[in-house]
Amino acid sequence: MRIARSSTMAWLTAQLITLAITAPVLHVRSAVAENVRQPAVAGAFYPADPKELSKMMDDMLAKATPPAVDGEILAAVAPHAGYPYSGPVAAWTYAALKGHKYSRVVVIAPSHYVGFSFTSVYAGDAYSTPLGQVPVDKEFAHRLAKMSSTMQLSEKGHQSTQDAPEHSVEVELPWLQKVLGNFDVVPIVMGDQSYESSRALGVALAKMLRNDHDTLVLASSDLSHYHPYDEAETIDHKTLHALEAWDYFSMSRNFEARVWEACGGAPIVAAMIYAERMGANKAEVLRYANSGDVTGDHSRVVGYSADLFIKSAHAADAPPPFSLTDQEKAELLAVARNSVEHMIQKKEPYAPAPSTSETLNREYGAFVTLTERGALRGCIGYTSAMKPLYMTVRDTATLAALRDPRFPPVSASELPQLAYEISVLSPLRRVTDFEQIKVGRDGLLMKNGEFEGLLLPQVPVEQKWDRQTFLEQTCVKAGMTPNCWKDENTDIFGFTAVVFNEKNSE
């Protein structure tokens, strides 16, 4: 019996040595991983064979040529569709990460199959891929889940069952294994994609990682789904323009309103909030494409982008100040007046001719202010860039005349006395230093949970307010106490505006 046991042990030892030489490196801790999330889409979204998978990624990485990164990559975005479709774009994100060392990666993803109303931080021990197991940083996950009532330790959204083969975290892991080697993962799936959930997660991560330079936050997301090729490009570039401008508040609003599209919109917003609070000052879109570029079928495509959020010693150049020509101002003022008069006189929305101006066809937030003999008669606007500018002015002019709750609707007899002023807003950017707020240049938007209020740049000038009074009065406009601007839960967004009326448009 002793001889038999000795022979068996020798055979097992030989097999273990062989496996150690030929098998992919397993990313495991010293403790045994008992609750391991098995691959759900290996063999479907990407090859199940490790050699085939590795070769596919190597080929795609070789074709991705992102520019050298000037600074520290704090967060990134990568798509999560099948590798033949989104892989050529995802490779740009991962090629940019080559040579960077991270011991922990927080992957934030959406839920495609299971509905739930919280952010699910994975409670298991590891995620498995054909390249081996990626251990979960359980201590970090447990601490994170306690940071907000919007987050829970859970397996919701992480299932690998036939009925719920969630792929949004899983498909990112082989790429990370390929370019980073060994790391721990914190898998997060967002069931609620509201701004509040994104903010809670982004702020919590920034608090936990304040002095950490060894963690990457990765948002897993595709962009628009199943539009014709040209329409998809138009929708997706609206999202990417806001991403580059750091206007994540408008992004979140437009995702919720389904004006823009990204299945992982909330993860992107959370990653941006985290990166901003960690000092990121550059947002770079490395690559954009859609499934039509791979298949040749342009009838129904899915959009993909590769993006980085970087903390650099050389901040991105500020965009040139937004401006409008005298002709564009005159066109917008005519749209505003015609919109109000048409609705009141003919009881139907005004249909302006499509603008030939490229600027007026781009999305901007705008307010229309109506006065009658110098007195305010209505003021309503879109704070987010939802529609082409000339259509935003059409809508907000009518709303200012008929829907401002402070005033009765404008009557036909008042039309000749109305004067029009238009304020076109820049993208919104969170204020990180109160001293940077300049009265007369900046407008403010404040948000704290359900409370929200906005004051245009011309208001504090008209009222002769200093900076602190401006902050206090914006709080009051939002329905909060005057000192709400000191509350860490209040987000303050600044913007500039091009303001013009019928007297100063020429």
TrEMBL record:
<protein>
    <recommendedName>
        <fullName>MEMO1 family protein SBA5_140086</fullName>
    </recommendedName>
</protein>
<feature type="domain" description="AMMECR1">
    <location>
        <begin position="327"/>
        <end position="506"/>
    </location>
</feature>
<comment type="similarity">
    <text>Belongs to the MEMO1 family.</text>
</comment>
<dbReference type="InterPro" id="IPR002737">
    <property type="entry name" value="MEMO1_fam"/>
</dbReference>
<dbReference type="InterPro" id="IPR027485">
    <property type="entry name" value="AMMECR1_N"/>
</dbReference>
<dbReference type="InterPro" id="IPR023472">
    <property type="entry name" value="Uncharacterised_MJ0810"/>
</dbReference>
<dbReference type="Pfam" id="PF01871">
    <property type="entry name" value="AMMECR1"/>
</dbReference>
<dbReference type="InterPro" id="IPR027623">
    <property type="entry name" value="AmmeMemoSam_A"/>
</dbReference>
<dbReference type="Pfam" id="PF01875">
    <property type="entry name" value="Memo"/>
</dbReference>
<dbReference type="InterPro" id="IPR023473">
    <property type="entry name" value="AMMECR1"/>
</dbReference>
<dbReference type="InterPro" id="IPR002733">
    <property type="entry name" value="AMMECR1_domain"/>
</dbReference>
<dbReference type="InterPro" id="IPR036071">
    <property type="entry name" value="AMMECR1_dom_sf"/>
</dbReference>
